[in-house]
Specification:
The chain is built from 4 helices and 5 strands. With 150 residues, the chain is an alpha+beta fold.
């Protein structure tokens, strides 16, 4: 028996509206300090460390708006029959460096939803892709995040 209904699988391929974000030197410096970067070019805000883009498109919410995992909600997601969500890994491909003054466009898409049987019962896997481009559409980075519901 599968837990995945046609309503749930209909979410595969759905994208949220693109989000634009301007990269500022101040944001790069704050991120570099917070993540204990050692390269001076990051600490000076001349270019962004590779993981900088992870948080660039996340909403800023009060502490009461954070989920049990300490993160802001992911946005539009299907209602799943399994409620405990865990991180299942992240794959990232970087195409070009991020610099202050750039305006980047991020689009989040549900790439795949599938089910597997685990040792303690069924698991539902969600693959969420974040594509980041320049305003001109040049690829900057892709991130595929897997979330596991159990």
């Amino acid at each position: 028996m599968t837990l995945l209904t046609s309503e749930i699988t209909s979410w595969i391929g759905r994208s949220e509206p693109p989000i634009k974000a301007e990269v500022t030197r101040r944001d790069i410096i704050k991120y570099a300090i917070a993540t204990e970067q050692v390269r001076q070019t990051y600490l000076d805000g001349d270019k962004a460390p590779p993981m900088f883009a992870f948080g660039l498109f996340r909403p800023v919410v009060p502490l009461t708006g954070l989920g049990p995992d300490g993160l802001a909600p992911m946005g539009a997601m299907p209602e799943l029959p399994l409620k405990r969500i865990m991180a299942g890994g992240t794959r990232m491909t970087v195409h070009r460096q991020i610099y202050p003054g750039q305006v980047l466009v991020g689009t989040r898409t549900i790439r795949n939803i599938y089910e597997k049987e685990g040792k303690q019962g069924p698991l539902i896997f969600l693959e969420i892709e974040m594509r980041i481009t320049t305003e001109a559409g040049e690829p900057v980075m892709e991130e595929v995040q897997t979330r596991i519901a159990r």
